[in-house]
Amino acid sequence: MACVPSDDDSGPAVDSRPAVDPGPAVGPGTVACARCGVQAGDALPVTWTCSVEDGVRRHFCETCSRQNLRAIEGRLDSAWW
Predict the structure, then answer these.
(1) Residues whose CB is less than 8 angstroms from the CB of residue 54 and which lie 6 or more positions away in sequence, other chains included
(2) Mean pLDDT of the chain
(3) Which helix (H) or strand (E) holds 22?
(4) Residue range(s) defining the domain that contains residue 64
(5) What pLDDT sits at residue 74?
(6) Which of 11, 62, 67, 81 is most exposed by smallest CB count within 10 Å?
(7) Is the confidence at residue 77, as pLDDT, over 90?
(8) 3-state DSSP assignment of residue 21
(9) Which residues contact 18 (CB under 8 A, 6 or more apart)?
(10) What's the total number of domains in the chain?
(11) Distance between CA 49 and CA 43 in Å, rounded?
(12) Of 27, 28, 78, nearest to 56 (Cα)?
């Protein structure tokens, strides 16, 4: 949790929002599909899908995104796929 300055004298307010986790990074600059584990390499392909679930950023490869398109459009968490 981060502290943010406050206008009153009661002290700093506490920011209760969860920090966004960058997801399953395999190495520096490498991202893996959260479903099948395939690695994207140095640059994240534009055909991959990014989702934030419970404050965790997850990336899905093109194949997994296509196979689960209806669930993604229905905004179901990946645990339901």
Answers:
(1) 18, 77
(2) 74
(3) none
(4) 25-75
(5) 83
(6) 11
(7) no
(8) strand
(9) 54, 55
(10) 1
(11) 14
(12) 78
Q: What is the pLDDT of residue 54?
A: 85
Place of tokens 């390499």: 41
Whether 67 is covered by a domain: the verdict is yes
| In the block, residue with structure tokens 């645990």 | 79
Nearest Cα neighbor of 2 from 11, 14, 20 is 14
pLDDT at 13 over 80: no
Q: Could you tell me which residues are beta bridge partners of residue 31? A: 25
First to last CA, the chain: 31
Q: How many other CB atoms sit within 10 Å of the CB of residue 10?
A: 7
pLDDT (mean) for 50-72: 89
User: Encoding tokens for residue 22?
Assistant: 């960058």
